[in-house]
Every structure is written in C-alpha cells, then in structure tokens.
Design goal:
The chain is an alpha/beta fold. The chain contains eleven helices and 21 strands.
C-alpha cells in the first residue's frame, strides 16, 4: 500500500492486486489487533492499582465477545480508510490474486497486465511444526477470532508473538503456560532483556518452561494433552504455536520468471530491494530481512524514491527501534551488549533496575529495567534497552539520539523530566561493566 501511494504521488501509473483485506498482516492479524488485545489485558492490573489510589468500583468483569466485536469494527474501519487512500492517490485496485508471468507481466483474474516494474510485497504466514497432532493447534492468525477464551492455554515460542500472546491470555484471566526450547526468551535481544522479562512475566502468573519443546498433541477427555521432549506432559484447552513464519512466495510464478528464492522461500534482494530479475523488486516480510511493519513501509518509500524520483536510496536497517508488547513492555534500539562487544571490543555498560513510582502505593513488585551500551572508544551510545511500562513510547525518542550518534556525554547533558521513568536514561552515571 505504501509503495503504491508514494509511487503514484511521484507520477507513476500504479495498480495493486489484493484479493483480501487491505493492511496486510499488521492491520488484520498483527500489530493493530494485537495491541488492542494488549490494552485489554492490562486493565486487570490497572483496576488493582486504582484501588491503592482511592478508587472503588464493583468487581471488574471481562467479556471476550465485546472485545472481539470492538476489534472487528476498528479493523473494518481501517480497511476502508486504506482502500480510500489508494483510490484517492489514483491507484488502480485489482480485487484478485496475482501471479508473475515474466519480467514485465502480471496475471490477475485471468487478465495480463504489463508493467515496467513489478513489486512483490506478499508478506509471510505463520507455520506449525511437523509434530503429531499439530492440526489441533492454532497460530496467531486464529487467535484473533477465538469464539471463547480457553481456561488453560499453552503458548509455544520465545519471540515477539509468543511472549505477547502469553501476556495477553494471562492478563485476560487464562491459566497460561509459555514453553520455549531455548535457554532464555527473546533470542537475538540483549541477554539480560530475555532473562528479566521471564522473571517479570513469571511474577504476573505466566508459567514459563525454558528448554521445553512439544513433541506431540492429542485430544483428551478435557482438552488437549501435550507431550514434551524429555517425557513430561500437560493438559490445555488451547495450544498456540508462535515458532516462525514463512514468506508468501508459493504459486506466485517467481521461479518461472527467474527470481532467485532463498531456502525458506524468501525473495533474495540487494540493498535496493531488487531481485535477481532487474524489473522485479520485493519488500517487507516476503524478503525475510527484518519482519517489522515500519521497516516494510520504509523499504517501500526508499524503493519509490529509487524507481520514480531518480534518487537511488538503499535500504537502511541500522539502529531500527522495536518494541515487544508483552507485560511488561520491552523496547530496544541499537546493539545488544553481546553484539556491541563483537563489533567494538571494549564497551561501557550502564544499567538500573527499580520499582516505578506509580507502583509505590501498591504491593506490586514489578521492576523496570534500563540499560545503555556505549562504545568505549568513541563514547557513542550504540544500544538502549528497556523493560517496563510504555517502553515503546520511551525508546522511540531515545532512538533519535542513537540514530544520530549521540555520545554518553550528550545523554548526560540532557536534563531529565522529573519524576518520570524516562529520565533514568539521562541520569545513568555508574558503570556496570
């Protein structure tokens, strides 16, 4: 959608083929409904905190169907908004699935369309592991349309989707277990982030099983019986896998058109998002580079500039901020401590862990964790990491400083806003390492 609108704004004649709803994974079965569910799941704790501040109300009750209906209305509204934006930009909308016939031809609804440039932005699809009984499990796609909440849920995986849905189900009152085959959550993030998140989620009632992987699922008298590698088992009403996604390239005609694909089916592209066929480009999750919606839309804008504005603009995946909307939230920008040591050798680390002021009137023991990683030679801040309420909102501003190459001295010279959690990023003084 972004590539179509921007390209049309630069004067290109553009058509977009979409057989389903506009907005892709993010709008329909990803970022937007997931964040709405996350908001819903946080209210239980907010009601508890409110009592410590003098507020009284009746016993809170949650209704799943109300949340689903509200979510569906908002997604339908967004679908309409996006379709109008495309139409207003002059983009021709083809309401059918398309396939690539050759370097300059696309077929949609039995008709051939010729184009100077073809863009593949078909995203990815969640996958289930090939274990006995996997047909009894669901993925995130189905989680947004459950007819009722389960009493007991098993989430399998250790990255964004798994920890987010574990927090969502737990917050909505589901007895929740999170199983991950690795030794810590959030592989690829700073090591301490994964460790601290597991601790905080466990405090909130999520049963976390590390180095634990399902080997089979079977129907039981009261739900689903899951066997784990090593011989243990458990019973659940719902099993959801969040263990990976596969690029959507099957039956698109890319092979026949000469487009090189990676082993997982991803379109292989260069730094200008160009495939092995000069006229065919690909962006977003279908390239399996960095599976984040803002990255995909940025790739779209860079590509439109390259093709239609005469400004060759390579993809820039350096210092991309990201957030994990678990409870508590996680947000980072830049390098983990481990990656920084690999790249720079000597680094300085500053970190803190504390109980936020908001919780001081309650008996809640959740701790906020914040960390800065600094290249010792240049004193540039090369990584910022946080676990805590509104972490994504806070890191977005910090990301600007990291992207611009701010030094630790410049962070220190910035006056904090008191009392806030965010001020800790500019008041860290004691080196931890």
């Amino acid at each position: 959608m972004r590539a179509s609108r921007i390209a049309a704004g630069y004067g290109a004649r553009v058509a977009i083929a979409e057989p389903g709803r506009f907005g892709g994974t993010c709008v329909n079965v990803g970022c937007i409904p997931k964040k709405l569910f996350s908001y819903a799941a946080h209210w239980r704790e907010e009601f508890e905190v409110a009592r410590a501040y003098g507020w009284t109300a009746g016993e809170p009750r949650f209704d799943w169907r109300t949340l689903l209906a509200s979510k569906d209305r908002e997604i339908a509204r967004l679908n309409g908004v996006y379709e109008r934006l495309l139409a207003d930009a002059g983009v021709a909308i083809l309401r059918s699935r398309a396939s690539v016939r050759d370097a300059h031809t696309v077929e949609a609804d039995g008709r051939a369309y010729s184009a100077k440039h073809i863009l593949v932005a078909t995203g990815s699809w969640p996958q289930l592991p090939a274990i006995p009984g996997c047909e009894h499990a669901i993925t995130s796609n189905e989680a947004f349309f459950l007819e009722q909440l389960p009493r007991r849920a098993l989430l399998v995986g250790g990255s964004y989707i798994a920890v987010e849905f574990a927090s969502i189900f737990n917050g909505l009152g589901v007895e929740t277990t999170l199983a991950y085959r690795g030794k810590r959550l959030l592989r690829g993030f700073d090591g301490e982030i994964g460790e601290h998140l597991a601790e905080e989620m466990a405090k909130k009632g999520v049963a976390i099983r590390l180095e634990s992987n399902p080997s089979g699922i079977e129907k039981a008298a009261d739900g689903l019986r899951v066997q784990f590698e090593g011989g243990s088992e458990g019973e659940f009403d719902l099993v959801m896998f969040a263990t990976g996604r596969t690029p959507n390239t099957a039956n698109l005609g890319l092979d026949a058109a000469g487009v090189a694909l990676a082993e997982d089916g991803a379109v292989v592209v260069d730094r200008f998002s160009r495939s092995s066929v000069d006229s065919i480009h690909a962006i977003g999750d279908v390239t399996n580079r960095m599976q984040l919606t803002p990255v995909a839309t940025a790739e779209a804008m860079w590509l439109a500039k390259t093709l239609f504005r005469g400004e060759p603009t390579p993809v820039d995946h350096e210092n991309v901020p990201t957030a994990v909307f678990a409870n508590p939230n996680v947000a980072v920008v830049g390098l983990s401590e481990e990656s920084a040591r690999e790249r720079y050798g000597a680094v300085d680390v500053y970190k803190t862990s504390f109980r936020a002021l908001k919780l001081s009137l309650t008996d809640k023991q959740e701790r906020t964790f914040m960390k800065l990683v600094v290249d010792r030679a240049s004193q540039r801040v090369v990584g910022a990491h946080m676990i805590g309420a509104d972490a994504g909102e806070i890191i977005q501003g910090v990301a600007i400083a990291v992207k611009l190459g701010a030094t630790k001295a410049q962070f220190d010279a910035t006056i904090g806003i008191h009392p806030t959690v965010a001020e800790e990023f500019v008041t860290l003084r004691e080196k931890a390492a």
